[in-house]
From TrEMBL:
Lineage, uppermost ranks: Bacteria, Bacillati, Bacillota, Bacilli, Bacillales
Domain of life: Bacteria
Topology term for the membrane: Lipid-anchor
Main location: membrane
Protein name in the entry: Ger(X)C family spore germination protein
Pfam family, one: Spore_GerAC_N
Length: 431
C-alpha cells in the first residue's frame, strides 16, 4: 500500500505558518548585522605614513585626510581654502604602541586601509627593517601593497610637502613612482610584499627608491601653495641598497637603470647619445655636440649562470634584446642610408652594455646581490649553491659578467633627415 498523501489545504493553518517562520527565524539568527561596524565620521583616513627611529623609540607620522576639504575639491585649491591634509606624529617603544598613542590626541581612530605610501627614514633603514615588515605582514589593517620609499633625514618632512597636481600628496607620490617605473624604468616600483620577498630570498638583498624635497623650503602652507611656481617639490632620487634588511649603500640613477636591465624591469626609457662617427666627415672625429635621442619601447633580458670547476669565478651571461624609435636628432648624417642606422644601433648597444656594466660593478663594490643571481644559481646548481651560500657576498663580488645587446631601431619618424640637415641643404641651394 502506498503512502497516504495529505492535501496541502487540509493542513492546519498554524502548522503551515510554522513551516514558513522557522527558516526566517534561522536567517535572523545567522544574519545578525554589522555588530562591529565603525562609522566614517569616527575614522581618520591615512593616505601616507612615515616611520623613523629616535634612540630606542619608534616615531610614526601620519598624513591624514580632511574629508570635507577633499570631497569638495574638484581642482587646485582657491585662495583661502583649507588644506586637504594634516600631519602629526606619535612615539612609542614599539610601532603599534606608537600608533595607538594617537588616541591621546585625536578624536578619531586611524584607518590604514587607504594608506598609499610608506616613507622609511634613513636612520631606521641603517638599523634594520625586520620589525617594520613584521608589523605590516602581521596586522590585517596594514596593506602589504603599500608603496615603500626611503628618505634621507626625517620621513615626516616628506609628508608635510604639498603637491599641486594631485590634492592628496600620498596619492601623488604613489602615482609618480608608478609613472617613473613605466616610462623611464630607472627606479623599480617597490611595495611591502616585494620588499619582504626580496629580503627573504637566497640573496637576502633588496632595493628601495629614494624620495626627497628638491629646491628651497618645504611648501606646507596655503600662502606657499597658491602660487604658479612652488619653492620646492618632491622628487625621486637614488636607489637605496639593503642587505640582510639594513641599508648598506646607494646607487645613482644611471647605475640603477643598469641594474634594472639585468633584473628585466626596464619597460620604457630614453637614451641620448652624441652623433659620434656620423659627423666625422664634416666636423672631425670626436665631435659630440650634436645629439640624438631614442625611446626604448621594449626590452627583454635573459640570464644564464655558468659555473665552471676549479677556482674559476662564476660567469653570468646576460643577453638584452631591445627595440625603440628615434625621438629627435641634430645629426647631419643621412638616415636613408642603412650604414647610418647600423651605426646608431651599434652606439645604442654599446651604451646599454656600459650602463649594465657600471651598475653591476657598483653592486659588486657593495657585495650585495640585488639582481637575484643567488636564486638563479640555487635553481641551476643546487648542490654547489649549498657550498657557495656561506661566502656568497665574496663570490658575488668576483662574478664575471658577459653582456650581449641586440638593439633594433624600428621607426625614424616622419622624416629621414634632421631639421639641421634640411636647413643646411636649403641654404646651400639658395647660394
Amino acid at each position: 500500500m502506498g503512502e497516504l498523501s495529505v492535501p496541502e489545504e487540509t493542513v492546519p493553518m498554524n502548522r503551515r505558518m510554522s513551516r514558513t517562520l522557522l527558516p526566517l527565524a534561522l536567517m535572523v539568527i545567522v544574519l545578525t548585522g554589522c555588530w562591529d561596524r565603525t562609522e566614517l565620521n569616527e575614522l581618520s583616513i591615512t593616505s601616507a605614513t612615515a616611520v623613523d627611529r629616535k634612540g630606542d623609540r619608534w616615531v610614526v607620522s601620519y598624513q591624514v585626510l580632511i574629508p570635507s576639504v577633499v570631497s569638495g575639491a574638484s581642482g587646485p585649491m582657491k585662495g583661502g581654502a583649507q588644506l586637504p591634509i594634516t600631519v602629526y606624529t606619535t612615539e612609542g617603544p614599539t610601532i603599534r604602541e606608537a600608533i595607538y598613542q594617537s588616541t591621546l590626541e585625536s578624536p578619531r581612530t586611524l584607518f590604514f586601509s587607504h594608506n598609499r605610501v610608506l616613507i622609511v627614514g634613513e636612520e631606521l633603514a641603517k638599523g634594520g627593517l625586520s620589525e617594520l615588515i613584521d608589523v605590516y605582514l602581521r596586522n590585517s589593517d596594514s596593506r602589504e601593497t603599500v608603496t615603500v620609499l626611503i628618505a634621507k633625514g626625517e620621513g615626516r618632512k616628506i609628508l608635510e610637502q604639498l603637491l599641486q597636481i594631485q590634492i592628496i600628496p600620498g596619492d601623488g607620490i604613489r602615482e609618480t613612482m608608478k609613472t617613473e617605473s613605466e616610462n623611464y624604468s630607472a627606479l623599480p616600483y617597490v611595495n611591502m610584499y616585494s620588499l619582504a620577498k626580496a629580503l627573504t630570498s637566497e640573496s637576502n638583498s633588496a632595493v628601495i627608491p629614494e624620495i626627497f624635497i628638491s629646491g628651497g623650503a618645504p611648501v606646507t602652507s596655503e600662502e606657499q601653495f597658491n602660487s604658479t611656481t612652488m619653492s620646492s617639490k618632491l622628487k625621486l632620487g637614488k636607489l637605496a641598497i639593503l642587505r640582510d634588511g639594513r641599508l648598506v649603500g646607494w646607487l645613482k640613477v644611471r647605475d640603477a637603470l643598469g641594474v634594472n636591465f639585468i633584473r628585466n624591469q626596464v619597460k620604457k626609457t630614453v637614451i641620448s647619445l652624441g652623433c659620434g662617427q656620423q659627423n666625422e666627415a664634416t666636423e672631425g672625429p670626436g665631435h659630440s655636440s650634436s645629439m640624438f635621442a631614442v625611446k626604448l619601447l621594449h626590452s627583454a633580458t635573459t640570464i644564464k649562470p655558468v659555473l665552471q670547476g676549479g677556482d674559476e669565478p662564476l660567469r653570468m651571461l646576460v643577453k638584452v634584446k631591445a627595440e625603440g624609435t628615434l625621438l629627435e636628432t641634430d645629426c647631419k648624417a643621412d638616415l636613408d642610408r642603412q650604414d647610418t642606422i647600423k651605426e646608431m644601433e651599434r652606439q645604442l648597444e654599446e651604451e646599454i652594455r656600459s650602463v649594465i656594466r657600471n651598475g653591476f660593478g657598483e653592486t659588486q663594490k657593495l657585495q650585495t646581490d640585488i639582481v637575484g643571481f643567488a636564486d638563479m644559481i640555487h635553481r641551476r646548481y643546487p648542490k654547489r649553491w649549498r657550498e657557495m651560500k656561506k661566502a656568497w657576498s665574496q663570490a658575488y663580488a668576483e662574478i664575471k659578467l658577459e653582456t650581449q645587446v641586440d638593439f633594433t631601431l624600428r621607426r625614424l619618424g616622419l622624416t629621414s633627415k634632421s631639421f639641421t640637415k634640411l636647413d643646411e641643404e636649403s641654404r646651400g641651394g639658395e647660394e
